[in-house]
Amino acid sequence: MKIKIFEVFDYVLFACVLILVTMGIAFIYSSGINSEGSLVTNEYIKQIIWASFGIIIMILSSLHDYNKFERYSQNLYIGLLAVLLYTCLFGRYVNGARSWLGIGDFGIQPSEFGKIVFIV
Fold first, then answer.
1. How many CB atoms lie within 10 A of CB 18?
2. Which of 46, 53, 71, 87 has the largest count of CB atoms under 10 Å?
């Protein structure tokens, strides 16, 4: 059985994502340089790590048909509502908004996963 990965992959979207991510990282890098030309922050490194993680997830998810998850959509929606309710009650305050769940120093926003559930 021959897998047709390269036929279903959206190369135009991937190229646009790479261009925008590269520009974003360049902007973050340039904003971390002071007037003397020395680097004062390493925020761009975190951006590179998360962008790489996101691009890998994009590639993996683009190779699968998301319509196969349709039979789980009701369970996903109920689970999402439970996580969002938990966030409202016990979430971490960041910049005046209780929209983060934290595990140690690591924090996530469950609303980001909600976007994926609503697409499915």
1. 12
2. 87
Report the distance separating Cα 66 and Cα 12, nearest Å: 19
Are residues 75 and 52 part of one domain? no
Of 86, 94, 31, 24, whose CA–CA distance to 52 is shortest?
A: 24
Q: How many domains does the chain have?
A: 2
Helix H or strand E segment including 80: helix 73-90
Q: How many C-beta neighbours within 10 Å does residue 100 have? A: 16
Tokens linked to 79 = 């689970």
Contact by Cβ (8 Å): 28, 43 = yes
Give the pLDDT score at 48.
95
Domain that holds residue 115: 66-120
